[in-house]
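WARN retry 2 of 3 for item q-0093 after timeout on previous attempt; input resubmitted unchanged.
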Amino acid sequence: MDDLESVVQRYLPDPELLALCGQMRGFWNRSMNLMEKISEKSVQQMAQAPPQGAEVAKFKHVMNQVDINAYTYSGKQLYTEVCKESPYRKAFATPLDWGSICFAKLRAGAYLAMAKVIHGIRRKIEGYYQEVSITDLIGPYSARVAGRHEAAIYRGASKFVEERSVMQLLACFGLSPEPIAFEFVEEYVRKGMELVGLTYAATINALLTPYEEQVRAEFYALNNDTALQMRLAWMEAVFKSGESVRKLKLVPQPTYAKRGLHEGIPVPFFEVPNEYWKESVAKEDTFPVGLLSGEVPLVPVSPRNLPVFGEGKQVPVNEILGPLGSGKTVMLDTLACYRVQKGYIVFRPNIPRSQSLSVVLPLLPVTRQLEKDHAFLTKTLRIAPKGYAAVFFTVAENEGQIDKDAVYTKHDKIIFVKKLSSFSLDWKTLIKPILSGGYLVARELRNPDLTHIMRATLFRDFFQWREKNKDIKMALQSDEVWEMVRAVYASSEEAQVAQSVFTAVKDIRGLNLAWDFATTRSTDINPGIVGMITTNGSFFFGYMPETSQETWRSPRSQILGMVEANISDGERQFINTVRKIMSNVPIQDNFLFFWVHNRRLRLVKACLPPHCPEVTDVNIAEVFRKVEAETGEQVMVPYKEVPRFEVGAVAREAKPTKKRDSW
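OK item q-0093 returned
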């Protein structure tokens, strides 16, 4: 949204486009303000369990305030349309119901205005350049833009699959080589966001579930295979245009394998030799010609030089900082794979579900994206494809809180508890199938707020159990560290998060628990964190933009200042080189990270794991089906066949059954 507004204001200040940008921003801000009001925990809890007796007056007052907010942010026309003309208005129970629908309609308005802005920009550009297509204009940068956009959508703020699909279609609408009818885009956006509103409302009011299912069927009729192929056509075209343009070519040097291919990753990282990037440069100097260009070898980093395991009080903590699409996920996967191969259990309590599901699948060439990864894995790295042992578990109070449309596997369990805010799991039984090494992954619930409540309890319960079971080889991984901190330490303000991360590092080390965490936000760390982790652990940082007019206050300068304080005198001379590289070399496109450990500064790239990575060109369920066809092994199971347990009794082995087993 910011990029679109910037393009219009700077290059195409057309009155109509400027007005549409204002409309887009207005709808978006109103939807955000309304969602903030209706998603408050206290309000949600009241709606789910209406109070009795003396609390009734308070309940009425709170709901009245929600109603006023819905009217204020929606406006009279939209509010009236939702409350008096919606086909499901008879099922409304509280203002949260119609407030959720108003939110979705406001958000749909923002996306439709965005579509009109995109259409206007495209029409003007292609009209000016006549025979040239939008893809040709973007040229070699289109593959990079496409990959980053898909990553940003996939891991963005929205937890609703349908809203992500809407955003993907808008990207397609702007960049697809073949034009897409605006009428189709409009219908897709309206129906997708209607489903988002009903899905959110139905988590509180079950009477809306039949309407949700009806709208879901209508949206999926639009979102069929033909539409999916059309939506992904732009990715195919732009990747083709960008394939041949690479100024920097990284060439991993092979590691020795006794017979054929390596079983698992032989080393977690490859390093760019010093002579290819370390050159002392002054601030006023131009970027040295030949630095990090052409064919550059990647040398295996000996595992002995990596703080992956640690002993006694030397428990490693590894932090990864970088923007979306820079390779943080691959870095986490590499560290996890290496630990699992050494008999560790890697606990992932807040990594997106489909991202972790694929660890059980070997990396096979079943999609266009995976064909390249498979060739690189087997021919360049000489590693055999391999899936890893895992336990995926969902904690919920009832079936209505669980996303039944997600992919479920034979490694899944569903654990029912009486209250998400207070439960205790039998962790030893839970990890029994992976005691010799594997992944332990906690799934999300349908409702983000309920997921947050569940995670907060899960963390507390796990840490209490770990205090008495420090001998089991385990590591913890967090994708966005602020989500974990918010759950454990109730810190959401940026100023509080960094201090809470500092506290978490000390607490988790005390549990003899290695911890890898990633973040896109430079504000999540401070000098104390960097100083603490770079002795026994590592700080990996990727590309960071200069975003402030005052360079010294930018995230890049602040992070490099922290790094400079934690490296040797000999290494400090290369800080300006790091700045120059960030400004002149696309290190994020090559998944390169600067690595600070034991007062040394190095430039590394993670080894590609042998399991199936996160994919953006095909639905995750389709990847599972294709891998199953290749291997002849069934991994997916219907939701109804996932074993159920109840907390409270003695645990026993999970067996597929429609009834709930005791836990």
